[in-house]
Amino acid sequence: MAPMSTAFIAAVEDFSAREQVPLITFAKGQRKDDVAKQYHAHFPHKEGIVFVGKAQEKTPVFRTEKRRNPATGQSYPWIVRSTAMVNHIYFYGLDEDFGPFFLKFCTYFPYTAKLCINGHEYVKRQLAQEGIAFEALDNGILSCADPQRLQQLCDGLSDSRIDQLLRKWLARLPHPFTAQDRAAGYRYEVSVLQAEFSLTQVLDRPLCGRVFFEEVIRENLDLGRPDQVQLIFERRITNRTPGRFRTRVLTEGVIPSLHIDYKHSRIKQYPKEGRALRTETTINDTRDFGLGKRLSNLPALRRIGFEANRRLLDVQRISQDCAIGEDAFHGVNEPVVVEGQRARGLRFAEVSVQALFSVLLLFRLLPRGFSNRDLRNSWAPLLGKTPDDLTPGQMTYHLRRLRLHGLIERIPGTHRYRVTRPGSRTILFCTRTYTRLLRPGLAQIVPEEALEDSELRRGFDAFDEMLDHWIEQRRVPA
Predict the structure, then answer these.
(1) Mean pLDDT of the chain
(2) List of domains in the chain
């Protein structure tokens, strides 16, 4: 096989020189995708090989080892399976229909190859060719002028189209099998090494997406149990079913993700660029689902992947609508505009706001409501002022703020007001949280002179001590 390997490497170098394609060697630990992005950014053509890369990687190979015939004593070579650090050749290209891709060849027998494509890049190319306006995510579609056609294009990414892509570039690129080898029947066939099937649900209100997803994680940590996983993948699980079944929450930077394992496959769910919820099934072994590895099994794998995404959403649960609670909090704390009228927010931590809320709770049970003067007379002492220190104009301003925030309403035909039902509930919750939880809690844990017999204080002190001990053990800089 040595002449075959030597000829292939020489053909790669000749291709690079003839086509004026950069030939680079990847450094150890260097992310190939980062290198590819740099080269793609400066590639001037719609289609072609952007650069060729070399990398040493551990891979399964066949080796020969010397054995000895016990009867004759003569030695002979024997082929065995093994692994070795072998040079691999990466062709990073740009296809007019598929966008970025790469083809990787092993330079050692049996000369395995790997084709990597991205379905999102494929569909972006198709949309652009048909002149359909769209807005892209990093790895997805945010919006599209023709969603129905977009779905048709996604469904059109078939096994036959992928095979055509491979044949197209095998015909253009050097690879280990010569024309005589191919005529003798030695050809590359495509099997599925890894397939990812994603469902991207774009959020109408992205700011609530993180809050929603954190609640989803908290409520669904048991999805990795066998009784739940078999519902998601529609596969019966017994004590003899191999694999680990678990749920993990991983955080990359500040972005959390939910992972559910099934044999060699998994489902990952995470917020996408703060704009969408991504549910993604990754199948690493088709035999987990009783299918072969040939590319012809792709339609069946698609059904399994997309159905798993949908079933995950079906079995997930959330006990409260956290988005509504987030809206209610910001509806009080942030400025509002109602019918062209703007009102400043009622900040939760402002002393004057907490005092105002306390007064409104007193007025909640008054059958005739309250007036401008009533509010001034009750609010001023809580601010350390006299009623004369607050002018009627100032009170009118604050009454208008309360009304536009929906906390009070004017009684028809009068100059009196009453606290609304949602307003009373919001005010009661905010005042009780502030006076009974936030203020006394911080008084116990923050100042050095706080009482040490507080259970809350002891808990925080123990946590600080444990954290300092852990940092010291691992020699982590403070």
Answers:
(1) 87
(2) 1-117+158-189 (no CATH), 191-320 (3.30.530), 324-446 (1.10.10)
